[in-house]
Write a structure and sequence with these properties.
The chain has 298 residues and is mainly α. Helices cover 77% and strands 0% of the residues. The chain has 13 helices and no strands. Helix 1 runs antiparallel to helix 13 and helix 5 packs antiparallel against helix 11. It starts with a helix and ends with a helix. The mean pLDDT is 86.
Length: 298
């Protein structure tokens, strides 16, 4: 099991480490890289996975519901803690709710369980992204119009992919292959960009960052445990939910906080120290998940 955990985590941290090393000596256009990823490569991957008839999406409804409960429930669960510690909810809660399902979640699940885990990883990623750009933006600015969602390439590709899948529209193999190849670019690029972002860590507010690194995965796992049982999730879907629930805050939280001027430096500490904390959290979670999968519990 130790070898399996290392085989899953080492490529993730090696690619992210390459991004950190490159960013240390160069000044890559990380904004341009992220824009290209989120507007082209990630939407292509999402469309390809959803449009591929080999992924019976009706089997993932329970997982999508569970993912939504983990995201929204984390905010509700930690609300009393935030009030008790007198933290700013708009600063602290979004990073606790919206996790790194893109930069870390998709690569982790693919490395841990292979291509069979890709539909589950993409479904959870879509759920997290849609909630982030609806509920998350509303939390920061209640006047944000929800119709802005329809301008996002990830939303448009999700709608198109679902339409093709549910409408049983046949697509030529060469087109799906090209989309999968282009979409596959996003996975190492997500990790590389995460590594570059690690250079922005501000340890000036390390106590809040450390608190977030603990509470983000803890709140998710507390919610995931009963959901696996209540929704009857088993096999790869249960494993995917466990990994999803334990993921650190998404880097996107920092970009959104910067856009809305919501204490971006504090959010950066929460995000980046939380991702550093995953070096400790993810090996433990993967050990439990691998034991669960190998035991054949469903």
């Amino acid at each position: 099991m130790t070898a399996q955990i290392l085989a899953t985590l080492l490529p993730v941290f090696l690619i992210a480490g390459c991004g950190t090393l490159y960013g240390r000596y160069r000044t890559p256009d990380i904004r341009g890289m992220n824009t290209l990823n989120m507007e082209l490569f990630v939407p292509m991957l999402v469309f390809a996975v959803l449009a591929d008839g080999q992924a019976p999406l009706e089997e993932y409804v329970g997982l999508a519901l569970a993912g939504a409960v983990v995201v929204l429930g984390s905010g509700l669960l930690l609300w009393p803690v935030v009030k008790w510690l007198k933290l700013e909810p708009k600063t602290f809660l979004p990073p606790m709710m919206f996790n790194n399902s893109g930069n870390m979640g998709i690569p982790l699940l693919l490395l841990a369980f292979g291509e069979a885990a890709l539909p589950a990883a993409v479904v959870l990623f879509i759920v997290e992204m849609l909630l982030h750009f609806s509920v998350g933006l509303y939390m920061l600015s209640p006047r944000t119009p929800l119709w802005r969602l329809l301008r996002m390439p990830i939303v448009l590709s999700s709608i198109a992919g679902l339409g093709v899948n549910l409408g049983d529209v046949p697509l030529p193999g060469w087109l799906l292959e090209a989309l999968h190849m282009l979409g596959g670019v996003c996975i190492p690029l997500l990790l590389f960009a995460l590594g570059v972002r690690m250079l922005d860590i501000d340890f000036g507010d390390w106590k809040t960052g450390l608190l977030g690194a603990l509470l983000c995965p803890l709140s998710g796992l507390v919610l995931a445990a009963p959901l696996v049982w209540l929704l009857g999730l088993g096999g790869l879907q249960a494993a995917a939910l466990w990994v999803f629930a334990a993921l650190p805050p998404a880097v996107l939280n920092y970009l959104v906080a910067e856009q809305y001027r919501q204490e971006p430096h504090k959010v950066a500490s929460l995000v980046l120290i939380g991702n550093l904390g995953s070096l400790v959290v993810m090996p433990v979670v993967l050990a439990v998940v691998f034991a669960y999968v190998h035991s054949g519990v469903s």
